[in-house]
Design brief:
Elements lengths: L1 H13 L2 H10 L11 H32 L5 H38 L4
C-alpha cells in the first residue's frame, strides 16, 4: 500500500504546475507520462545553457561593437543582454527545482522501503 501512495505522491509532484513550468523551460516533453531522471534534467539544462551562453556572447560582442561606434550607451543592446541573462537564470532555477524534486522523491522512496 505504501508503494501505491508513493506512486501517487510522485505523480502529483511531477504534475504540479511549478514542475510543469520548469520542464517546459528546459524543453523536457512528456513529463506527465514519466518522471525524467536526474541525468535527463541535467542534460536538458546543459543543452539549453550552452545555447543561451552562445547567444549572450554574440550579444555582448555586438553591444561592444555598437558602443565603440557610438559615443553613448547602447541601451537597446544592454536590454537584450539583460534579457538573455534572465533566461539563463530561469533555466538554472528550473534545473535546480527539478533536481530537488527528484532528490526528494528518491529520499521518499528510500524511506518507504521495508527494513530487512
Amino acid at each position: 500500500m505504501q508503494v501505491e501512495s508513493h506512486s501517487q505522491t510522485e505523480n502529483w509532484s511531477w504534475k504540479s504546475q511549478s514542475a510543469q513550468d520548469a520542464a517546459e523551460i528546459l524543453g523536457i516533453d512528456g513529463l506527465s507520462e514519466e518522471v525524467p531522471t536526474s541525468a535527463h534534467v541535467v542534460l536538458a539544462a546543459q543543452l539549453k545553457l550552452r545555447h543561451l551562453r552562445r547567444e549572450l556572447s554574440a550579444r555582448l560582442s555586438n553591444s561592444l561593437e555598437a558602443y565603440q561606434v557610438e559615443t553613448g550607451l547602447n541601451s537597446k543592446a544592454d536590454l537584450s543582454v539583460e534579457h538573455v541573462w534572465g533566461r539563463i537564470r530561469r533555466v538554472q532555477a528550473a534545473r535546480d527545482k527539478l533536481l530537488l524534486l527528484r532528490r526528494r522523491l528518491s529520499a521518499d522512496e528510500l524511506m518507504s522501503l521495508p527494513v530487512k
